[in-house]
Amino acid sequence: MLNLEEGKDIVKLARQTIEHYLREGKKPEPPEKTGGVMEENRGVFVTLNRNDELRGCIGRPLPNQTLVDGLMDSAISAATQDPRFPSLTLEELEDITVEVSVLTPPEKIEVEDPKELPKKVKVGRDGLIVEGTGRKGLLLPQVPVDRGWSAEDFLSQTCVKAGLSPDEWITGNVEVEKFSAQVFKEEEPEGKIIEESFIS
């Protein structure tokens, strides 16, 4: 678990990384003194919003990079490589709020009958990964909360994110994993940074 000061640091680092990349066209050097949780391998996502509308979201679901490296790479990717949006401009950055989600390692949801999956998913705590037929989709735990989804809706929409039919989770042809996240975000562009935890 990160404390609020660490959370503030990673949100600020994400913003600074994006600004540097948009100005210089290259990734900045990581901070000299990180240590602690920043050097631990963690999954991490960076989400960018403009006027409460998504403007970019990319990350690393698996803990195969240190938090500082995964964070900086994800920040640049969210700003410039999300295929749903054009690359962010430096001028636009002034209107963007930055949100960072630090993930727990995903764990497979084991059920005998796929119809039992919704009982194993808690909206407001779990994020989901659906994988099958060579496709994979991930939705962060804050997404169903923001959109008022049930556990069934959440499973269906994660399938859609993977490019699968909404009811694919019922067929037993996909693997479903869940994870939790600590979320730190700006209340307004470059404003106060708060924590929203989605941890069991």
TrEMBL record:
Domain named AMMECR1: residues: 5-195
Source species, domain of life: Archaea
HAMAP family per record: AMMECR1
Protein name: Protein AKJ64_02335
Taxonomy of the source species: Archaea, Methanobacteriati, Methanobacteriota, candidate division MSBL1
